[in-house]
């Protein structure tokens, strides 16, 4: 993937990679999200993900033993939108939750988001366009950090080293 293609896909953090070849159930993208005590972020998260212009995705939310209201909110969104699937497991950490999500995924590609992430409306579309146009195995995009105190976004300078990306 070229730096130009990567830049054109930008807007949210994340890596986008192959999910094992042909999609099961014809799904293009599996969005995998570990959730642990994220109740205060979930409405904003779901608005950002379910509001994507690219609709050919499943959203796999792995509740990693939350003790707040997260499980109830996850079920509410799963009942309202058939693209949302909820998996519940004992608390084992975000990495184990992502692995659980990958085991359940049906998409040709995976993307990992966190339950407090924002995403621009065309993030999935841009990343899907970039990875398929380049016939690449992975697509990485830039991200911004959000300061909850000031309510402002700031460039996230440590997401990757752009100078190492092939031109």
Layout of secondary structure:
Elements: H1 3-9, E1 14-18, E2 29-35, H2 39-50, E3 57-64, H3 70-80, E4 84-89, H4 94-104, E5 109-112, H5 123-133, E6 138-141, E7 144-147, E8 152-155
Parallel strand pairs: 2-3, 2-5, 3-4
Antiparallel strand pairs: 1-5, 1-6, 7-8
Explain how this protein is built.
This protein is of the alpha/beta class and 167 residues long. The protein is 31% helix and 25% strand. It is built from five helices and eight strands; from the N terminus they run αββαβαβαβαβββ. The strands form two sheets. It has a six-stranded mixed β-sheet, sandwiched between helices. Strands 7-8 form a two-stranded antiparallel sheet. A hairpin with a 4-residue loop joins β7 and β8 (152-155). α1 packs antiparallel against α5 and α2 runs parallel beside α3 (70-80). It is globular. The model is unreliable at 1-13 (pLDDT under 50).
Listing every helix as H and every strand as E from the N terminus to the C terminus, the arrangement reads HEEHEHEHEHEEE
Mean pLDDT value: 85
Shape: globular
**Beta content:** 25-35%
Main sheet strand line-up: 4-3-2-5-1-6
């Amino acid at each position: 993937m070229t730096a130009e293609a990567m830049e054109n896909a930008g807007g949210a953090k994340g890596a986008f990679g192959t999910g094992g070849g042909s999609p099961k159930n014809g799904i293009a993208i599996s969005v995998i999200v570990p959730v642990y005590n994220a109740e205060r972020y979930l409405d904003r998260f779901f608005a950002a993900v379910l509001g994507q212009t690219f609709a050919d995705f499943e959203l796999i939310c792995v509740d990693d033993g939350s003790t707040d209201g997260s499980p109830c909110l996850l079920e509410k969104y799963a009942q309202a939108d058939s693209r949302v699937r909820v998996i519940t497991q004992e608390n084992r950490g975000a990495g184990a939750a992502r692995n659980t999500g990958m085991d359940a995924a049906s998409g040709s590609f995976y993307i990992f988001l966190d339950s407090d992430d924002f995403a621009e409306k065309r993030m999935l579309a841009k990343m899907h366009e970039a990875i398929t146009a380049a016939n690449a195995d992975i697509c990485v995009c830039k991200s911004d950090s959000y300061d909850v105190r000031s309510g402002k976004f700031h460039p996230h300078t440590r997401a990757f080293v752009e100078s190492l990306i092939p031109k």
